Structures are given as structure tokens and as C-alpha cells.
Amino acid sequence: MAIASRATKRALSTFAAAKLPEEAVAAAAAGEAIAARSHQAVPLPPAPASSVRPLQFEDTGRLFAGEPTSALLRTLAALQALSVGPLVDAATAALRSPAVAGSALGRAAARATAYRHFCAGETADEAAAVVRRLWRGGMGGILDYGIEDAEDGHACDRNAAGFVSAVDVAASLPPGSASVCIKITALCPIALLEKASDLLRWQKKHPSFSLPWKTHSFPVLSDSSPLHLTASEPAALTAEEERELQLAHSRLLAVCARCAEHGIPLLVDAEYATVQPAIDYFTLVGALAFNDAGAADGGRPIVHGTIQAYLRDARDRLEAMVRGAERERVRLGLKVVRGAYLTREARLAAALGVPSPVHGSIQETHDCYNGCAAFLLDRVRRGSASVMLATHNVESGQLAAARAQELGIPKGDRNLQFAQLMGMADGLSLSLRNAGFQVSKYLPYGPVEQIIPYLIRRAEENRGLLSASSFDRQLLRKELVRRVKAMVAGRE
């Protein structure tokens, strides 16, 4: 295989000089796994109980075929750095500091490190180029204009225009290659989302409580939801707040309409518990308007919400949504994730002295994710739902792929998609692609200072409870050692 640059050749020569046998690589990986467990990282996943193993990782030469060695080295270096807890703590503290993150030097450092690894560029055109590259390699891209937490209506209007622009860029790409992801916190002021969420929780506890601004009764909460976050009756929305809420509806529907015009799937991200009820409420406003259950072509619905499996109420809310969709004759579209706000949720629960909304163990989260995935795959088989399984967990990928095969879901069915973040779980993405499944990478883009909250979550995720990067690093090392051996053998 041709080596991309002299720098890459020098790096490979260093590998060759070390003459690392695969046993040494395995031992090093095992040592890392032990160290990672001290930081509560996830150990390498066991094989699924099923004898069916649609995803193959043993042949890393086939797995990473076509991936430049320079890219593998960069990915390994980034993931290795992110696995060092003290380094991540120092980096996230710096990113949270306005003095550092707001300085030219701080932005340059972020751009050269985490930003380069996890982000697709500063502009939509740069992100579109990444989608085209992925599409040539058999995968799609999810364009995410990385804005969130708007403070006022003017910011929301700018953000809505940015989302519409992202849809237009997606429409210019090869058909089927791109979808668009948005955050409701970018379309509605945070304070209003928090207040609306309080009101929705209070109404769940007191069904006779009237909310005159509600436009639908689709369930967004369950009895197991963290209703204790609203301890007393909240004040009603003022006339001005109701007007602002209606403007947020209009912004969302404008983005949905542009997606419907071009046939671009729209994925609405889940966020944190204090605002999630309002986010789900907004998402269902879009779904009710644009997801026609009677569509004759069996294509994907336009609007997709998100279920976070690390939340204790995830399965209950999922089942309530499915029942609501059947009642309202809406085609349900959902993205299933584990969740990325673990630190924030734990901190808030501790400050309030209330139970965390997150499962008490990583295994409970895994079980919830796998159960939600199996539940939705059955709905995909029936033709009543569309699902994107966003996971970095190899066992979950194996189980879902095996279950899809058992159910007879065609691999070309657009209503079953897998997804991983840019810069993470590339081995899983490539294995799913090689097995014939439809896979996309999540591609955030925008100015560095705008993407900093996203970068902080990725750094915390890679060293935290839900980390699967040790498996990624093991695959990368194995392939790099294989390439070193092949290069050395070619010289002899």
C-alpha cells in the first residue's frame, strides 16, 4: 500500500524499528483496559449470545482497506490522548475558560487537536466535501450546524437560517448521501424551553392542569420520568412568552418544510433533562405535520426524534410514543443513542438533592439501549417506524445487525440506519458498511468557538462511563502493526 507522506513513512519506520509483535500489542491493550476501568471506561464487549455475527473485526486489512495510514495514525493519536484522564480534565477546563477559549491561541490549539478530529470544518461547503468523500467510500453524512443554547429570538432567527442553509447543502449532494441534524435549543430561547418543560412536567403530575399553548397531546413524559425536577406549580407563560413559543414553532416548521421539499431526513437531537420535555414536544409538532403514516412509497419519514437510553424513563417514553403514533396515524422516526450529558445530569441531580435521571450502572444503560433497538427493529419490519441506531458499542451493533437479519429487514431498507460520530468508532462504521448496512457519520461543523460545547462532550465521553475508544485503539494498533509487517516484508 502506498504511504501518503514522508511523515507517515517516518512514523511507520518507528513502528517497524520497534518490531512490536501482535502479542505485545494485545498485552498493551489489556493493560490499557485495566487502566481504563479505573476511570470507569467500558471494557471490550463480549460477543453476542447469538451465533450470528454479521459484523467482522478480525481482518483489519479488509476492515480498513482504503483508509490512508496517515489517517489511522492521526485517529490513534487523538484517541490515545483522549484516554488520558488528567490531560482531558486539563483540556476541558481550558475550553470552559472564556479567557482561553476566547483567545486566538486557545482557538488555534482547539482547531489543531480535538476540532480537527471530531469536526468536518468551519463551513457547510467543507462539511459537504466530507460527505462526498464518505459517499465514495460507501457511507453517508449527517450535517450538524453546531449551534445550541440560544439566548434570545434574534439568535434563534440566525440559527434557523443556518439550519435551512444546511438543508440546501444536503440537497445539493448525491441523493441519499446526507441528512441534517438540529438542536431545538438553537431555535427557542433556553429560558423558555426550561419554563415550558416545567409546565409539561406539572401537567403530567396534574392532568387537569391547562396549557392553552399546547397544540397536541402526544405523550412526551411517562410516570417514570424525573417529574421531581418540577417541585411546585410553575407560573403560566406570559403573552409574550406564548408569542415567542409560536415563533419557535414557526422556525422549526420552516426547517421541516425545506427538508420535506428536498426529501432530506431531519434528526432532532435530544439534550439535557431540564429542557427535554419541551424538545420532545417540539419534535412531535414537526412529526405530526410532516410524517404521513399513509405514504405509499415506504420511504423514511422526514422528522426523527431521539431517545437517550441512559435515562431511566427511556423505554417507557418510547413505548408511549409508539402508542401515540399509532393513535395519531403518524409515521414514527427515531434516533436511539446512549446519551452525552452524563456529567451535567449528575451535577444537577447532586445540586438538587434528587435522584439522577440516568441509570445507576453502565450495564443498565446497555440493556436499555439494546431493548429499545430490538423494540424498534420490530416496528421497522412492520413498516410502522424508521430508526437510526447511533452507537459506538460493538456488542449493540452486533446484536442489532443480527436481529435485523433474523427479522428479514433488507439491508437496503432506508428505514434502518446506523450512525457514529466523526472521529469515533470508525471500526464499527466500516464493519457495518462491509456487512451491507446503511451507515452515516455525524458531521458537526461551524466556527471553533461555536463548537466548543460539543468538543467538551466528546472529550468527556471518550474518558467517561460510555467510552468504547479502547476497542477502537486496539483495532487501529492491530492494523498499523499489520501494515508495518507488510512494509518490512516487502523490503526483505
**Sequence stretches where pLDDT stays below 50 over 5 or more residues:** 1-49
Secondary structure class reads alpha/beta
- The number of distinct helices, counting runs of at least 4 residues, comes to 19
The second-level CATH architecture of the largest domain is Alpha-Beta Barrel
> What is the distance, rounded to the nearest whole angstrom, between the alpha carbons of the first and last residues?
16 Å
Give the C-alpha Rg: 23 Å
Helix content: 55-70%
Give the count of structural domains. 2
Order of helices and strands: HHHHHHHHEHEHHEHEHEHHEHEHEHH
Largest sheet: 8 strands, parallel, barrel
Say how many strands there are.
Answer: 8
What is the CATH class of the largest domain? Alpha Beta
> What's the pLDDT, averaged over the residues?
85
Mass-distribution shape: globular
